[in-house]
Specification:
Elements: E1 8-12, H1 15-32, E2 35-37, H2 49-58, E3 62-67, H3 77-80, H4 87-96, H5 103-113, E4 117-122, H6 139-154, E5 158-161, H7 165-173, E6 186-187, H8 201-212, E7 219-224, H9 235-245, E8 253-257, H10 261-269, H11 287-300, E9 305-309, H12 314-324, E10 331-336, E11 345-350, H13 355-365, H14 376-386, H15 391-404, H16 408-427, H17 435-445, H18 450-459, E12 467-468, H19 475-491, H20 502-511, E13 515-518, E14 523-526, H21 528-536, H22 540-557, H23 568-587, H24 594-607, H25 611-628, H26 634-649, H27 653-671, H28 676-691, H29 695-713, H30 718-733, H31 737-755, H32 760-775, H33 779-797, H34 802-817, H35 821-842, H36 849-862, H37 867-877
Parallel strand pairs: 1-2, 1-3, 3-4, 4-5, 6-8, 7-10, 7-11, 8-9, 9-10
Antiparallel strand pairs: 12-14, 13-14
Length: 882
């Protein structure tokens, strides 16, 4: 998407006279791309009317004046007194001797004062213009408006009479400066079906009327009818078709999968991406920062349509309703299987297609490729009846017929031949979708090769949202896929081996509408209905084998180090799939790679500061290892260490220490005293000892860890930088600064060579070196290092990460030491806010919160604040603390 800024146009008109004309102009303008603002969007708020109106117009790039015969409402005496602050009004007053102006006229004066492009279009009876309401104004007020019209013409802003809205917009848009207009943000999962979209006209009209009366903070939900609460009726397709049909009425069309609360937040945050809103915050790795940016954009750009898709669980519904309170300025449409909602959602019930519409769809969907017979219309009607009018089943049948170039009669015959077996699944409650869907997919599955079926089975266990294509790439993925196809051959003797590649299998499945393949976005999506059918058709004895292979596929595609910020884009994409597949595997009693994936996903979340989501994963991974591994296994030690890290990050040091000591004992016993894993364990333990001021106990452990890694990896390995950094910190804490400085410089050099100049590890080294320089009164050398560290961490983690708070604290203290208190105070206040928010999110006080409060108190005192003011400030900052 074009990265140019959004272009805003303000439409000025007297509502009583020109409301309907202005509405049509706004609709045509939005179709061209600009964001349109009108008087009805304006809210005065706490500021004066003049201040708010000035700011509102100042945010626009151009003002279009629709000037009629009516003045509109005149300002109160209090507001009229503010007109003297508008230079353009003074010029108008001098030229016309008019003593006052209407609010609509104010808009023109303010636009001129701010140098906005202004274009005036006047009503002209010869053009057939009819006002919304007759002019009730007195002759005096009419004379006032005539004076205003004459003066606007004299300024050279007048362009033409009000003709058709389309012509008016064309006259404005031919100007070269409107090259700045940014294309309308549209993110919809698929294009319109066009004439293939059958039988929904009445419902679309009902939905349109419902959305038109939507009030602030209220959403509309499309709810599937009582098909046992199941999918396939076409809710998502209808929402998308509505968006395409009414795209001219909206400033943006946005689609957000929202199956879980986590999906809702993550996918809303993803709107900041370059292919959607293209916001600067997209570079922020922290999800909360990107989410806040997306919500801010929605507040500041009215007129959008947002589709929240598959809100199918009570938890997802609660999250969606909570999000509605934060969404303003547009319309929200939910697709869901739920029928019970609070007052902020208005349900609309969507039925299956009527038989005639379903038959018409089948005939048109297959008209270019099916084998034609005289009985086609009757066969289509019969097949539509058999498929129960279920949209998804109809699409699958149409895709199969078109792909295979068979007749409707042949497909109907084959469909009926498979019906008894499928009916048996349905009666046995092994299949949780309508019979029509089950039979349709069985008929399609008969024509797929083992490679395609194997791939569908592998993808049946992951989350029902796009799977990143990198999971299906590489030698390991190909090997696992062939193993899966071989397993399929064992279940069905005589089945030929898989041919081609995974990519070939994806292409074939896409041809049959069994998967959605987004080649540009590099994702493959399997519909949840397909997934459930694939899982539920498997015998219980075979499910574990397929689930294990699916987990192994995810494990093969995962990035190596979830704590490295460079791996986060891939981990973000894998996160929902790993979470769901690992949970299913844990329930099935599969130990590996379940514990491995849970542990690494927990590490990823913990590093991002999402401790509440990380903790249950790490606890469960540890429990699985304890149940399945011997007591001295290194993987058990790693799980203990990771959970201990989380405890330390959430200030539960007493719980962390025994886990660290146990991990150290395991690795020493199983790997020997000089193994790199032992050095890592020693390093973790010494960090905790430093946090609890046991420096004498920590130093020999640190030196031992340094010796192990230097012997194992040589002098330039990143592990060595960690050990050097930690030992230097201890030396500084024990006032051995001359010994500490060369170690810090060496650690910094290693990390800059290893990771580049902008990695978070480099920020740690810069911070530590700056603290030492500050301790030796070399403040001018310390400050640029601190600022560089802050910039690195803000870019890497987002503005609200605890590491950013640490950087802010360091810089604020240095500014305080150099008597720049006014510069230090906002940094210090922001630092406290981050730590308080951490406590609110995690339920645990951050280890540095009390120190942050003490530092902020000291700074406020240095600024000369009274004790009462300081107390009030700290109480305000702590207001959100649990």
């Amino acid at each position: 998407m074009n990265a140019a800024p959004t272009f805003r146009v303000f439409l000025s008109a007297v509502t009583g006279e020109l409301a309907s004309y202005r509405q049509e102009v706004a609709r045509v303008l939005r179709r061209k791309g600009p964001e349109v603002r009108e008087q009805e969007h304006f809210s005065q708020g706490p500021a004066t009317l003049l201040e708010r109106l000035r700011d509102y117009i100042d945010q626009c790039d151009a003002v279009i004046l629709l000037v009629g015969e009516r003045c509109g409402a005149f300002s109160t005496d209090e507001h009229a007194a503010a007109l003297g602050a508008i230079p353009t009004f003074e010029k108008y007053h001098a030229a016309t001797h008019q003593p006052r102006a209407s609010y609509t006229q104010w808009e023109f004066f303010l636009a001129k004062d701010h140098g906005k492009k202004t274009y005036a279009f006047f009503t002209d009876p010869t053009h057939g213009f009819v006002p919304d309401e007759p002019n009730p104004e007195s002759a005096d007020l009419g004379a006032c408006q005539q004076a205003y019209r004459g003066w606007v013409k004299q300024t050279g802003e007048h362009r033409d009479a009000l003709t058709t809205p389309a012509k008016l917009v064309e006259d404005v848009l031919v100007l070269p400066f409107l090259d700045l207009i940014r294309p309308k943000p549209i993110v919809l999962p698929y294009p319109s079906l066009g004439t293939l979209f059958k039988g929904r006209g009445a419902f679309l009209a009902q939905l349109r009327a419902c959305l038109a009366r939507t009030v602030q903070g209220r959403a509309t939900a499309i709810v599937g009818k009582a098909l046992h609460g199941l999918g396939g009726v076409g809710k998502t397709r209808l929402a998308v078709e509505y968006a395409w049909q009414h795209q001219d009425d909206y400033s943006a069309l946005l689609f957000v999968p929202a199956e879980t609360p986590q999906d809702l937040r993550r996918n809303l945050a993803a709107l900041t991406g370059p292919l959607v809103l293209d916001l600067p915050e997209n570079a922020v790795p922290e999800e909360e920062g990107r989410l806040a940016a997306a919500l801010r954009w929605l507040r500041e750009h009215p007129g959008w349509l947002l589709i929240l898709d598959n809100v199918d669980t009570p938890e997802a519904a609660a999250a969606a309703e909570d999000m509605l309170a934060r969404l303003h300025g547009g319309q929200v449409l939910l697709t869901t299987r739920l029928t019970q909602w609070s007052g902020c959602v208005e349900p609309l019930e969507l039925d299956v297609l009527k038989p005639g519409d379903a038959a018409a769809f089948l005939l048109e969907r297959t008209q270019r490729s099916r084998q034609r017979l005289p009985t086609d219309e009757a066969d289509a009607a019969e097949l539509a009846r058999e498929l129960d009018g279920l949209a998804l089943a109809l699409e699958q049948a149409g895709a199969f017929i078109a792909q295979r170039r068979v007749s409707l009669a042949e497909y109907l015959r084959d469909w009926r031949a498979h019906a008894p077996a499928v009916q048996e699944w349905h009666d046995a409650r092994l299949m949780q979708y309508p019979r029509s869907v089950a039979v349709t997919w069985q008929r399609t599955m008969q024509d797929l090769g083992p490679g395609e079926v194997a791939l569908l089975r592998l993808l049946a266990w992951v989350a029902p949202e796009p799977v990143p294509q990198f999971v299906l790439e590489g030698e390991q993925a190909e090997t696992l896929w062939r193993e899966a196809a071989a397993l399929l051959g064992q279940e069905s003797p005589g089945l030929v081996a898989a041919s081609g590649t995974i990519r070939d299998a994806v292409a074939m499945l896409a041809n049959y509408s069994m998967v959605g393949w987004d080649a540009e976005g590099q994702t493959v999506a399997v519909h949840r209905v397909v997934q459930e059918i694939m899982r539920n058709r498997l015998p219980a004895a075979a499910q574990q084998a397929w689930l294990t292979l699916s987990l192994m596929l995810l494990a093969a595609g995962r990035p190596a180090d979830p704590t490295d910020v460079r791996s986060w884009p891939r981990w973000n994409a894998l996160r929902p799939h790993v979470a769901l597949a690992a949970a299913r595997a844990d329930e099935a009693g599969i130990a590996e790679p379940t514990a491995l994936l849970m542990n690494e996903l927990g590490l990823f979340l913990n590093t991002k500061g999402l401790h509440g989501e990380a903790k249950p994963l790490m606890r469960r991974a540890l429990a699985i290892h304890q149940r399945s591994l011997r007591t001295d296994h290194p993987n058990l030690a790693a799980a203990l260490n990771n959970l201990a890290h989380l405890f330390q990050a959430t200030n539960r040091l007493a719980e962390a220490e025994p886990l660290m000591r146990r991990a150290l004992a395991i690795d020493e016993r199983s790997l020997g005293p000089d193994h790199p894993n032992v050095a890592k364990d020693l390093n973790n333990l010494t960090g905790l000892l430093l946090a609890t001021s046991r420096l004498a106990e920590a130093e020999p452990l640190m030196r031992r860890a340094l010796a192990i890694d230097e012997h194992s990896f040589g002098p330039d390995h990143p592990n060595l930088a960690i050990r050097l950094n930690n030992l230097a910190g201890l030396l500084q804490a024990t006032n051995r600064l001359a010994e500490a400085e060369p170690l810090m410089l060496r650690a910094l050099a290693i990390d800059e060579r290893s990771f580049g100049p902008d990695h978070p590890n480099v920020a740690i080294r810069l911070n530590n070196l700056a603290a030492l320089l500050q301790a030796t009164n070399r403040l001018a050398e310390a400050e640029p290092l601190m600022r560089r560290a802050l910039a690195i961490d803000e870019h890497s983690f987002g503005p609200d990460h605890p590491d950013v708070a640490r950087d802010l604290n360091n810089l604020a203290q240095l500014l305080k030491d150099t008597n720049r208190l006014d510069e230090a105070e906002p940094l210090s206040r922001r630092m406290v806010g981050i730590f308080v928010d951490f406590s609110r999110r995690t339920g645990h006080e951050h280890p540095h919160l009390q120190g942050a409060l003490a530092n902020h108190r000291s700074l406020l005192k240095a600024l000369g604040r009274s004790e009462a003011d300081i107390k009030a400030e700290l109480q305000r900052l702590m207001a959100d603390r649990p």
